[in-house]
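user: can you give me the structure for this one chain? tokens are fine.
assistant: on it. calling the predictor now.
[tool input]
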Amino acid sequence: MLQTNFLKKQFSNPLVLASGILGLTAASLHRTVQNGAGGVTAKSVSLEPRPGHPNPVIISKKYYILNAVGLSNPGVVEAVKEFIKFKQLCATPLIASIFGGHHDEFGELAEKISAAPIDFLELNLSCPNVSHEFGRPFAFSTEAVTIITKKVKEKTKIPIIIKLSPNASNITEIAKAAEAAGADAICAVNTLSGMAIDVKMRQPILHNKHGGVSGPALFPVALKCVYDICSTIKIPIIGTGGVTSGEDALAMIMAGATLVGIGSAVYYRGENAFNKITDEMEKIMTEEGIKNLEEIRGICIH
């Protein structure tokens, strides 16, 4: 009922762990598969190790999570080792995620990480909480997205996914530029830029002052982005952002998504969130007489 084909790769269900949620160790990714994920996306990696931002880096509320972890990671060399271990544990589709400070860095990273047995490569062009280090996100510029996509395509044969930002006012134009440059798929969306202030302390709560908003509050924004992008391009989309229930996941698919990213739901519903959401999807589909996801994919697009 939930089996999904994405870029010629079979997924047992459309739910994919979003990047940055449970790290990139083989053990943590494998545990996510055991808890029902149809695929996993590792935390974004850079050429060299990064410590990330000083604490506090995250706060959680009823309807949102605000984080400024700062893309902490052990670097591409260690990531490749973990991806090899993961594929020794299971055959579940694995999406690696990379980020860089300039165009050429993405190409170098793509070449290095392609030594790992990954199935797809996500280009994180849209993190909202490292702008003071890397400048304006690449996902705001059609030119930057075009250049980076082409550079990466020159360095790897692995299908690439461009991760876009809901903060971009021209997100459909960015998606079209990525498609034209050779991207195989789009991931929409990353977190929204946000802030929290401690009134008694009279200062921002996060050390970084601002961060990325995820969780249920992001869902309607992400859903609209997926709908708009799917109305514009032909390559498949991973719909990500605030999905916490089976109803949310089916809505993403009705808006045109092929796969559905799951992130903050792990916080709100526990590590077993994937099984809970797929159970809810199957229940709704049975009640509504929906035999498979292809019947409803993009059904809302006119």
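assistant: here you go. The chain has one domain: 4-295. The first helix runs from residue 26 to 34.
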